[in-house]
What we know:
This protein is of the alpha/beta class and about 325 residues long. The chain has helices at about 10-30, 80-85, 120-130, 150-155, 170, 215-220, 235-240, 250-260, 285-300, 305-310, 315, and strands spanning about 1-5, 50, 75, 95-100, 100-105, 105-110, 115, 140, 160, 175, 180-185, 185-190, 205-210, 225-230, 245-250, 265-270, 275, 280, 325. It folds into 2 domains: about 75-185 and about 275-325, 3-Layer(aba) Sandwich (D-Maltodextrin-Binding Protein, domain 2); about 185-270, D-Maltodextrin-Binding Protein, domain 2 (3-Layer(aba) Sandwich), CATH 3.40.190. Glutamic acid binds near residues 162 and 251.
Amino acid sequence: MIEHRSTVSRDAPKRRLRWAAALTAGLFAAAACSGPVSVEPPQVDVPTPLPEGIDFDPDISTDPADESCDPLASYSPGSVTAEQARDTLGDQELLVVGISQSTNLMGYRDPSTGQPTGFDVDIAKAIAGHLMGDEAKVKWVPMTSGEREEAVNSGTVDMVVRTMTMNCERWGNVEFSSEYYHGGQRLLVPTDSGIAGLADLTADHRVCTGAGSTSPKNIAEQSEAQPVTVPDFNDCLVLLQQGTVDAITTDDCILAGMAIQDPTLEVVGEAFSEEPYGIAFAKGNTDLARYVNGVLETMRSDGTWQSIYDTWLAEHLGDATAPAPVYQD
Ligand code: GLU
């Protein structure tokens, strides 16, 4: 995902790289000769690696948010059986699920096993246990935020369980389950940044976030900082470590996972948006949505949801209980 480009307008990382190159050259020279040497630092221009698809000045809609629906209102479980729900799958022997494979705590490929892990992954596995009779009957398809709607509607996946916020605009394109996690957008900054929340961001700050997500509009509406988008918000972490951006903004649970990966970073400020997560299905596949809502009811009442939350998120985000379902019929 990382490609090399020769231009970036932030100078600090370049300067650091030039000094590192100069120091290395000096050490090699010193090792090769016996006497003292005088080495001028060579002016090498080491490019800063940037993720493919980075946009330093993204177009962000200034249209008011669509508030024509209740974003939380899904379909009541009713009497859809597992067999009826399986009939809607592309392959009735395998549940194909869209996830992230690089979002620590939520959907993350464990390098030691090669298996996806995290809150979203365990929610999907529990659903597969009910629907397929076997948690292992799942095929995982990694995807970015911007690929989710197309993935369910093209039949590439049967469902998406990937930190996906339910909102009216998206309800126009996909079906959602009932809410299974309630998040909010926050900021991740270096511990010594002096930024303690949204109010400390100025027009001189660059804030990295994910394209195709709800995050760019939220930050653009509530701050003067310059949003920088990347197709996969996980690439923001390297950009912050490089000094190419000053902060990362996305949902609390995602930022908590990044803060674990780099202890020199911290999540700051209050949440400044509501991000209710739903599982997405192809538009029109209300049978699968109803069946999954029945499974989520069971998971709320039999302790499965709580155990998944406590395993992945409680230590980092505090205690929580499952959001109560809302139905439109
Ligand atoms: N929950 C937000 C969204 O669905 C941000 C995180 C993400 O893109 O997955 O847009």
